[in-house]
Amino acid sequence: MNIQKPTLVHVIAWTTLTSGIVNLFWGFAASATAIATLIGIVCVPLTILPTVLGVFELIYAAKLFSNPPQAVKPSTNIAVLEIACALTGNFFAVAVGILSLVFYNDAAVKEYFVRLNEPFRLTPPPPPSPLPASLLDPQLVVPTLVEEAPTPPEEPPAKPKRVPRKVSKK
């Protein structure tokens, strides 16, 4: 599979790799700072986000750099989590997340990911072919019953209209 990577895919890979490294260091530093303070211990779960995200970014960047290219889809989830790193004060990751989302919407990048994932598309199975008549034994063939269309129920004959009686005057 010889698919030429667009420049923006290289940019996404390099920025994701850099953001992953920065997020690892940022997460370790933020966690160490939070653990060092008594009140910060409550905030430790918030400081774990950059560390975990950094690991996912490194794995995704490695898939983008692989040769031959692996079937991988645009990871908008990672880009959104990079933007969420604003909660931890890591604005470099925020910038990378915004740029990644913008680059994923480029026509050349969309076409690259479609061509990259094309052999792995799931296609519906072909419809089953009917058995040839030579394989069917006429004695084993069960005749199908043809249902007749139901006839509408007969309506009772309409009653004749009643003529009002005239009242005689006395």
Number of β-strand runs: 0
Query: How helix-rich are the residues, as a percent range?
Result: 40-55%
Residues in β-strands, percent: under 5%
What characterizes the major β-sheet?
A: none
Structural class: mainly alpha
Number of helices: 5
Helices and strands, in order, run as HHHHH
What's the average pLDDT?
81
Gap between N and C termini, in Å?
111 Å
From the alpha carbons, calculate the radius of gyration and give it in angstroms. Answer: 36 Å
Topology, pairings included?
Layout lengths: L6 H30 L7 H22 L10 H9 L6 H14 L2 H11 L53
Helix pairs in contact: 1-2, 1-4, 3-4
Model description:
The protein is an all-alpha fold. It is built from five helices and no strands. It has helices spanning 7-36, 44-65, 76-84, 91-104, 107-117. α1 runs antiparallel to α2, α1 packs antiparallel against α4 and α3 (76-84) packs antiparallel against α4. The protein is elongated, with a radius of gyration of 36 Å.
Describe what is shown at a glance:
This protein has five helices and no strands.
Give structural attributes.
170 residues; 5 helices; elongated
